[in-house]
Design a protein that fits this description.
By secondary structure, this protein is an alpha/beta fold. The protein is about 40% helix and about 15% strand. The longest helix has 29 residues. Bound molecules: NADP nicotinamide-adenine-dinucleotide phosphate.
C-alpha cells in the first residue's frame, strides 16, 4: 500500500518486532524513515543527550519531520508488586514513559512546522486493563495513554494528528526481554493461543499505516487490536 510518498519519519525501537515491521511498512508506502535503537548505537530514549543527537541527525538527513512513531519500549519481570525490583520499575518508566515524552518534546515543533505532522504512540491493552504481576508495565502504558490524550489537547489548533495504537499479545522479542533471555518462559507466553494465535508485528504496522493515511482532517485517536482469542489484557483463550 502506498500513500506516504515524500513523508519523513522517525521510528524509535525499530531494531526488532513492531518497530521493525513499522519502519518497513512506512518505507514500502513511500516514506523516508530514520530509525533508532540501542543495539546499533543510534538511540537510547532514556538518555537525553542521545535523543538530542539522534533527532538532530535525523532532521539533518530528512530535512524536516512529518511522522514520529514512539515505539521503543519494554517490560521487565512478572512479579507481584511486593516482589518487583526497583531497577526494573525504574527502567520501564524511564523507557516507556519518560523516553516517549522526551522524544515527543524534541520532535513536536518540527512536526508542527511540517504543516501535516503525526505522532503515533505505542500504547497497549495493558494501558486499558491491568493484569496481575505486571504493575510497572501496566503503569507505564496507562501513562502513555494519558500522555497521548494530553498531547492531543495541547496541540489542538495545530496541524499535528495524534494516534494511540494499543495492541494485545504480539509475538516479538518483548517476552524474551521481559524474562531476561529465558527462552522457555518467553515461548510459553505465545504458546497455544487459540483461534490462529497472537497477532503479528505486521498487523500492528498495518494499523499504524491506516491511521497515517487517513485524510488530513481525520484524526484516528486510538486503535485497539487484539488476537481473536484475547478479550482483555489478561484474558487469553488457549488450546489445551
Ligand atoms: P521488541 O521486539 O522487544 O522491540 C522493542 C524495541 O524497543 C527494540 O527495537 C528495542 O531496541 C527498543 N528499545 C528498548 N529500549 C530502548 C531504549 N532505551 N532506547 C531505544 N530503543 C529501545 O518488542 P515489541 O513487542 O516490538 O515492542 C514494541 C512496542 O510495542 C513497545 O512499546 C511495547 O510496549 C509495545 N507493545 C508490545 C506488545 C507485545 O505483545 N509485543 C503489546 C502491546 C504493546 P534495542 O534493544 O536495540 O534498544
Amino acid at each position: 500500500m502506498a500513500g506516504l510518498e515524500g513523508k519523513r519519519a522517525i521510528v524509535t525501537g525499530a531494531s526488532s518486532g513492531i518497530g521493525a515491521a513499522t519502519a518497513k511498512a512506512l518505507t514500502d508506502a513511500g516514506a523516508t524513515v530514520v530509525s533508532g535503537s540501542r543495539r546499533d548505537g543510534s538511540l537510547d530514549v532514556t538518555d537525553e543527550e542521545s535523543c538530542r543527537r539522534f533527532v538532530d541527525g535525523a532532521l539533518g538527513r530528512l530535512g524536516g519531520l512529518d511522522i514520529l512513531v514512539n515505539n521503543a519500549g519494554l517490560a521487565r519481570g512478572r512479579d507481584p508488586v511486593w516482589e518487583a525490583r526497583d531497577a526494573d520499575e525504574h527502567e520501564v518508566i524511564l523507557t516507556n514513559v519518560l523516553g516517549l515524552m522526551r522524544m515527543t518534546r524534541l520532535c513536536v515543533q518540527h512536526l508542527v512546522d511540517s504543516g501535516a505532522g503525526h505522532v503515533v504512540n505505542l500504547g497497549s491493552v495493558a494501558g486499558i486493563w491491568s493484569y496481575a504481576n505486571g504493575s510497572s508495565y501496566v503503569a507505564s502504558k496507562f501513562a502513555v495513554h494519558g500522555y497521548t490524550r494530553a498531547l492531543r489537547d495541547d496541540l489542538q489548533g495545530k496541524p499535528v494528528r495524534i494516534t494511540n495504537v494499543a495492541p494485545g499479545l504480539v509475538e516479538t522479542d518483548f517476552s524474551r526481554v521481559r524474562f531476561g533471555g529465558d527462552e522457555d518462559k518467553a515461548r510459553a507466553v505465545y504458546a497455544n493461543v487459540a483461534m490462529g494465535g497472537p497477532i503479528r508485528p505486521e498487523d500492528v504496522a498495518d494499523s499504524i499505516l491506516f491511521a497515517l493515511t487517513r485524510p488530513a482532517n481525520v484524526n484516528i485517536d486510538e486503535i485497539v487490536l487484539t488476537a481473536l482469542a484475547q478479550t482483555s489484557g489478561g484474558n487469553i483463550l488457549r488450546d489445551s
